[in-house]
């Protein structure tokens, strides 16, 4: 009854074709429910919460609950992979590998729906990892309360690791992030009369430049941080002075203290620009649940030991990464471990060309089935 490689490949290709933006994963949820309905249901209980799906696997002699979290949302990216199973949703793509994540989760669930564990297991198919802290939302609305896991685990694909390799580390795996949304408002006017207007292209450009000094001048060089401004919209035509500029970006840091320090510098610079350019700034710094992903010492030691002991698993000790994950929130509430699953690609996460190696699915399922069986017996 456990899903076969051919079935998992088909599931992956189907999911790849129906990417949806966070909190709108209706088709994805319907597809997941359809697949889950094909598993033996004897010890499964399925619950829907908006676009999230929670599945409890009731153990034979439960003492604890082991949690597995997968994210289900996609990105507003126009796919350019040329794959025969390309996204059917214009402007949307699984460019962060959540289609692989879901396939691994379904494979794992199909195994434990057939082989009953001793302890309970909770499978959380979570929306909105990319845009709206889906994990934090579910936790805070009490969706996990009845089935709260004692430990929680999750993975993320890694294009830079060989297919199926497992990458992990003690301590921080992923950075904490914080979105920057800055809107500058001045006075529009004719290009020929700058003295009668208040140009937000110039104010915005100064903001972009001054932000570059944060990492070079305000971050301890022994530590690290990133501030990327990925979006700048201002103006409509070359001979009109723009009265507004919208600039969006993201902060990354490996500790919450550093994240907050950088947030404060962004705030101060934005206010300084507003003062010196005599304009208004509306600044929204939004961290949500994107805390640093801090792996728990106990669960991570057990996980790494299992990975290293199995000759069929390629285990790699990885460095912390500046990618973010709203798993950071769940892992701040529930002890657990996150790890990378290699998908061997020349492209980065979020690239319109990303086409993860599908061979990673079986290997991810094998690694986690092995670990969960050992953990289930040990606790
Ligand atoms: C793995 C990955 O790429 N995660 C996203 C998480 C989004 C964080 C948030 N929306 C932000 O932009 O700060 C990432 O961009 O790292």
TrEMBL record:
Coiled coil: none annotated. It comes from Loigolactobacillus jiayinensis. It is an enzyme of class 3 (hydrolase). Signal peptide: none annotated. HAMAP family: DapEL. This is N-acetyldiaminopimelate deacetylase. Gene3D superfamilies: 3.30.70.360, Zn peptidases. The active site is at 71, 130 (proton acceptor). Keywords: Amino-acid biosynthesis, Diaminopimelate biosynthesis, Hydrolase, Lysine biosynthesis. Pathway: Amino-acid biosynthesis; L-lysine biosynthesis via DAP pathway; LL-2,6-diaminopimelate from (S)-tetrahydrodipicolinate (acetylase route): step 3/3.
């Amino acid at each position: 009854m456990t899903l076969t490689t051919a079935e998992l490949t088909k599931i992956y290709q189907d999911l790849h074709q129906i990417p949806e933006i966070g909190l709108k994963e209706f088709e994805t949820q319907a597809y997941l429910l359809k697949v889950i309905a094909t598993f033996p249901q004897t010890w499964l209980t399925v619950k829907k919460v908006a676009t999230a799906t929670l599945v409890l696997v009731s153990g034979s002699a439960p003492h604890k609950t082991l949690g597995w979290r997968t994210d289900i949302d996609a990105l507003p990216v126009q796919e350019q992979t040329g794959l025969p199973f390309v996204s059917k949703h214009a402007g949307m793509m699984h460019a962060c590998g959540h289609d692989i994540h879901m396939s691994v989760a379904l494979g794992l669930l199909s195994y434990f729906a057939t082989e009953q564990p001793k302890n309970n297991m909770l499978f959380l198919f979570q929306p909105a990892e990319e845009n709206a802290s889906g994990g934090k939302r579910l936790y805070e609305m009490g969706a996990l309360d009845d089935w709260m896991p004692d430990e929680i685990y999750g993975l993320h694909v890694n294009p830079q690791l060989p297919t199926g390799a497992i990458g992990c580390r003690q301590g921080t795996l992923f950075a904490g992030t914080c979105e920057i949304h800055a809107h500058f408002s001045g006075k529009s006017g004719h290009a020929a009369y700058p003295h009668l207007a208040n140009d937000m292209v110039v104010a915005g450009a100064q903001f972009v430049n001054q932000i570059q000094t944060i990492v070079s001048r305000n971050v301890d060089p022994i530590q690290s941080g990133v501030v990327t401004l990925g979006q700048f919209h201002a103006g409509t035509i070359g001979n009109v002075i723009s009265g507004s500029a919208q600039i969006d970006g993201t902060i990354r840091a490996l500790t919450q203290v550093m994240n907050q320090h950088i947030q404060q510098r962004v705030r101060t610079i934005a206010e300084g620009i507003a003062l010196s350019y005599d304009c208004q700034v509306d600044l929204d710094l939004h961290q949500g649940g994107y805390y640093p992903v801090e792996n728990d010492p106990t669960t991570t030691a057990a996980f790494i030991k299992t990975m290293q002991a199995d000759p069929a698993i390629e285990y790699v000790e990885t460095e912390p990464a500046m990618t973010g994950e709203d798993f950071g929130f769940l892992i701040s509430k529930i002890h657990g471990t996150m790890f990378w699953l290699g998908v061997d690609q020349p492209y980065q996460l979020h690239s319109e060309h990303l086409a993860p190696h599908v061979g990673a699915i079986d290997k991810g399922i094998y690694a986690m089935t092995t670990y969960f069986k050992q953990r289930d017996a040990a606790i």
